[in-house]
Predict the structure.
Amino acid sequence: MHAVPAEVGTRTSIPSGAPSGTLVRRARLPNDRRTPAAARALVRSVLEDAGLDSLLNEALLLTTELSTNAVVHANTDLDIEVTADPSGLTVTVTDFAPGPVEQLAVGPKNESPDIGEVAERGRGLLLVDHFASRWGTVHEGDGKGVWFHLDHRDPDGAARIPVTADAPSLGALTGLLRSGSERQADEGLGDLATDLLSRLARLTGAAGAVLRVDRGDGMGRQLLARYGRAPRDNADTIRVPLTVHRPYAGELELDAAPVGYAQSLAVMVAERFSLHLENDRLRRADVRRQTWITFLAEASELLAQSLDVNLTMALIPQLVVPRLGMWCAVHTTDAWGRLQLAAATHADESALVQLHATLAESGPESLLARLEEASRLGTQVMFGAPLEGFAVPLVARGARLGTLAVGRHAKHRHDADEVAVLEDVARRAALAIDNARIHDERRTVARTLQASLLPPALPHVEGIGFAAEYVPTGSEVGGDFYDVMPFGDNRWLVVVGDVSGKGVQAATVTGLVRDVIRILVDDGKGLNEILHRVNRTLVQRGGGRYCTLAMASVTRRSDGALRVCLHLAGHDRAVLVRADGRTSFVGDGGTALGLLESITTPDAEITLLAGDSLIFYTDGVTERRRGRELFGSNRLREAAAPLAGYPADTMAARLRSTTINFSVEEPRDDIAILVLRNDA
């Protein structure tokens, strides 16, 4: 097997048995655009060391062509061996691309003055056959290549390269081959194409040339470069298609008859420009992929931010239009599997009414029928005028949720990358819709369960005002609760509590506490006994959860005043608001229920005169956050002072609004506020 060197570099040696003055250098060069320049540098150094400067032009021209062909067509690394001796220079260029074994073809220097008369064995061999003294192909292991030999100048000093009035000069050919070799990938293709066309026209004597490129963007072939006059329809022209991958296509057109060397040089220029155009395609494709990756990441982030079903569906068309389509419509399936329009948008707002009308049409040939087909089959479906485009199903977790329909722009058809991106958007959108629906269902269940733990309405008592506000948070039921119930003749019991934690377990404990209190009240138990029995129940059956509780008995006195006996079991102190606006905290802290076997529950006696109010609340109020700042009990007390004299329901509503408006963030904990007022 042919040994492949492990390193890239040059090696200089003098073969044993070689004539005196023989110099050999070898190098392994990588597969990139700088390789031809490196190959020329190696040949130049050998010629200078061997004193064969007279062969410089021919050697550099042929080396450039063979190394460029190896990079462009073989697409592998290449080995180059340069041998110089008194008889001349031999260069061998070997690549490692797989292919059939070439038959050795060695011949003498072709003396024909016209390149067009030379048998064409590929573009590289065309020049090699014309300028080399001898040349051939070799196969050695997994490498195959081409070698050429240039004889030293004749003793009389005559130049070896035949020059005629009709043949291009060596310098002109070298300039043509080197044109654009040092050009960076991000430089304009138009300037390169114009330079190549001008050189080609001067070499062939053509009156003009054009180069058209179709980048697959729906705009068709566009004029990229032009030199001289445009080729005439009734004149002899040379047309050479560009060798590029789809969706790119193009053609070079030369206003010259396909005789002599014009055809071969046109092919040479077309292939050279094709290499640069293909690099441009790959670079643009990479940029587009990076752009789409960024777009999908941003779309996912936006979709993930919303857990509202309607908002999520309204957001999807806004993501698609106008970047991926002229219009977009989202349909969802109802309980019977029928499609219902959820959201739609159009790049032209004046066409939105007509879009809705078209989407509402029914019948076997309607757009809605095609959308139902996409939803039913779970596959992409195309549809034609008047709203040309396609639809993809919305599928999440194995369930078909609806369709995403997208209309194409008037002058642009969706390419493969855009279709793939739209399908990806549809998958992400379907998952976002499903997540929003699940969240909405969980929230509904939580709200229903939470409502079952609260009284449907507070009692209406002549001369006493009861009012409450409750703000649940998230999709999980919280542990906050309140209740007002009769507690004997002209007596009522007010309860505000907060069970630790959230979720079903917290709701279970909340229901347990509320039911135990009601049962004990019905049995005529006093406040102290109620608190102790609730504590014992939580210790035994609370599952490690505890409860803070504010419990107050309210008794109407004969003079119209209200006597309040307040017990706080680990709960925040209530706020007393006098009719004249004075405020204070009332109540003494006790032990939270469910933590210890025995508790202390000191009581506080408060007298509410006419117009006085007592405000109970949970920690969702005091712990409302604005950054690192808490709402706090003092701010609640300050907010309550101006509300003196207002009815209980107004006070509760104002305090709720003040608490919510303290921060733009969603509440992190449930908020419960209960106001007791003497309305006598």
DSSP finds 15 helices and 28 strands in the chain. Residues 459 and 484 are 7 Å apart (CA to CA).
